[in-house]
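Convert to structure. Protein one:
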Amino acid sequence: MASQAIPVEMPEPRRARWADVLVALGLLLAVSAPPIAVLLGHDSSASAVREFRRPTARPALTLDAGELRAYPRRFEAWYRDAFGFRATLIESYNRALAVGLGQSPSSHFVLGDERWIFHREASALETFRGVLPFEDEDLVLWRRSIEQRTAHVASWGGQFLFVCVPSKLEIYPERVPARFTRLGPSRRDQLLDYMSKSTDLDLLDVKQVLHGAKVRDQPGRHVCFPYGVHWTDRGARVAYAAMLNKIAETVPGVDEPWRLEDFREEEVGGPVDSWAEKLYLEEYFTATESFFIPLRLRQSVRDESFKGSHWEDTLWRNEDTSLPTAVVYHDSNGGWLLPFLAEHFSVMYGVRHVYYDPKLMAEREPDVVLVAQTDRYLVSLLPFLQGAMNDPEFRAAFEASDDVRIGPESLAGLDFRAPFADGTVELVLDEGAARLDVTLRSGANALQLPLFDPDTGPASENRMLVLRLDLTCEKDGYLDVFLRREADAEFDSTRTFPLETRAGRHVEYIPIDRRDMAGELLLRLSHDPGQVSLHGIELRAVRRPPQFD
């Protein structure tokens, strides 16, 4: 007789309720610890300084109806900076992504080979890959801009040189993650190729000499900072030598560049040019990099008393007054470049932007005008928006124009929007006084302005639209101006004009020359200019100046 299995009911295992309680208490403690720390007076907002921005101020609670409506959003913006243990929590999260998963904890950066950091500023990665090519019209404008500057400097016998500085992406493409394949020529390649075929002007490309220097890379001695965005002293020196040799072909009295043997290399530890602090990963991204100490006696001295239009403008004076004079327009790479160049000019001005100022050049009439522009800015620093802003004739034409498209009396009818305001944009329109009062504060904020109907643009081919902004800035910085084309559903980073702002109240003029602009404009703060107050906006049609022909 076959045996039959008799099912046996097993008792349910006794749940470790004490473990459940501990888990629940741990979660409760983790969630409540940050706000409890704030209540106990622990304010973490100072950690925002590591992110290169000012912490959001705690809003005051008042009985004003408008202030009360805005209070929840302002409080939330402040709390995101002030919650307890903020730096520790961010560091732990970022370390888990960067160290544990090999992923960048920020969408602004890409982690490459051997933890190299590549910044995505100004669509640099997209430009490098060739997915944001120049349009034919843009290339023509670039050529005209360089030709006009060359002719202007030549009018007093000076020499103009445009230097295309490759970004770190171009120098170290093998460090870029393999998933970012190149799909076409970069804007840099397009511009150099077009200029070589369409004009006799000779642009200087220093990519080859930088690649030559990269062959001699070793730990602590690179052409570009592994965790930053700029070139090192090693990179700046070979680029400066190429620039000086080029200048010497047409400018008499220029000495030979200093050789590598004229310097001693010393390694310096710490994040000299590194995004590690912003990512809260200083202990993970550690490196040393060499700096050049001159073995020869320097003859140039920076004039510390000089005050230019930008806080980073510089003036260098040389003991040898027989040397030529120069003006060097540069971006943030200039901090490494200028000390090398200054040894070869009796007086050299370093201008911390690349917008050619014809009035300033005509006043100084330097023997050499050099523009060293990194290729990542070929997306945003467009030539048709350069040069006119500081031209007194251009400004006079605006003031004389009676073709007003948007004026004080029509501001109240505009549909202002703050799509990324996050409670930090305040807009007050006083119709009685026809006064505009907009306050922008550093952070994720912007103000969108529908300025005009594209069908009612410039009246004729010889006219263009000009935007006048009356603003007060807490300190030097940048206000990004986005212009949307009719064909674009959204604002395009390739149509961005970074307006360099100064501390105090001043007026800025922005030419809107494109025929395909849809009539909408977006203002967004960048590079932490602090608080910016916008007092007035006017849009007029003016006669096209010569630089826009």
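Protein two, convert as well:
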Amino acid sequence: MAILLPLFIWWLIIEILGLAALPLAYRLFRNLPDRGYAFARPLGILLTSYVLWIGASFGFLRHSWGGIVFSILVVAVFSWWFYSRENRGLASFLRGNRRVVIANEVLFALAFVLFAIYRAYNPEIMGTEKPMEFAFLNAILRSDTFPPHDPWLSGFGISYYYFGYLMMAMLTRLSGVASAVAFNLAIALLFALTVTGAYALVYNLIQGAEERRSSGAREQGSRGAGEQGGRGDSVTRYLVPILGPLFVAVMGNLEAIFEVLYSKGLGSAGFWHWLDIKELVSRGQVTGRWFDLGGGWWWWRASRVIHDKDLLGNSMEVIDEFPFFSFMLGDMHPHVLALPFVLLALALALNVLRQGSRGAEEQRSRGAGEQGSRGAEEQGSRGAGEQRSRGAGEQGSRGAEEQGSRFPISNIQYPTSNIQYPISNHLRPLPGSAGFSQYLGLPHLPVGGGDGLRDAALRRLWESQLGFGERGRLHSHWTGSPGRHPLPALLHRLPVAGRRCPAQSLQPHQAAPVPDLLRAVRVRRRWLCSAGDEAVESRG
């Protein structure tokens, strides 16, 4: 029962760190189906330790309980700020993916508790490299700033890669448990984080494949097949990923199978000589039983299955450890400390990979959608165009019959043609109208009489180019005579009812100066401006 309280405290601290980094993980792993939920814990530990290390290295923080809490708050604020810059769908995601959340939480708690119980039966910090690692942990706990004290050389900083030990020391100081207990809890924590990381990676791979398959099925219209396989997909989604932690964190290189076979006395001497597992024949015992393998550290041979020799035939030490061997041995080596964060890096790589594949899929779907929409738009625009042209043709032909004029549409490529049409229409039998067109730098347009803006197509051009609406259209009634200078007089006297103004601005048939209306209209690299009652031409 003495281990339960420290175990609960460590579990609670890890959950708090995970919650602090969860908004950041949600946005950072946006391309993963679980949105990085399982990787929020190692991410929170990593970022909090990094903030503490930077602050204590430069003297801004102290490696104390207050400094650690401040680092957690910094990570939480940054995480929330980074998350809120884009979207806020975390709560809805958690509600809609309860099974993913529950599966990760249950798996983490089970792995952490079970391996802590396993370590409780063998908690001694002795043998192999445990004393050195324990010394690093205690040296960091006794250091208020970084680099920490060197346990082997008093007065100097530690000469080793110590960041992994710093993370465990941070948790130890924050929890307040003894360093000897924290050493074993750290091994259990690393095992649990490795288990959940491997589970999440496989889950995201499977779920991503299902999403691509379902999207392909929707494109092909096979909705019925997807509904029939829903229950099987659910089992695949949550149970098959357990193979990930089974292969990564639990299973090894299967050397133990040969240990059992040799202990049972199975296999010829030639076979065992050919297999050449180091020290299996020389130190192994044939007991005739399945489980009693002769005592001693027989499982140590699993980390030395590669039996290499030099040119003289002497055996060489080749270490081929695997995760469960290290967890079972209980050494807090840097490669053990790095395991959860290696899986975190793999998750980031998968996130980037899925982003590229999603972009390619979006491009393909966008291309297909554009083709479909283009076809629909062409069909719709063709029908609408026929209706508009039919109505416009009726109005134009009626106006042409009544007024005896028709506007050419082929000059629309000229930058001022949308102005010249209505202006030239108002030049009834006006002397110098051809000179006016030449002054604008355009071919002379035939001058007609009456209100040519009845043509619906020309009215749309006029309204779209100069921003006139129903209240701001040109009127055909104008007063006065342009005299011998058609352009200034025309621009000054041409009546208009305002520029998208309120109705009371100018009434129909009211004459108004136009230079202020057209001063921003560019004509052949020239701007038409007004100065008093005259139009002034200036180069822009």
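The first strand starts at residue 308 and ends at 309. The radius of gyration is 41 Å.
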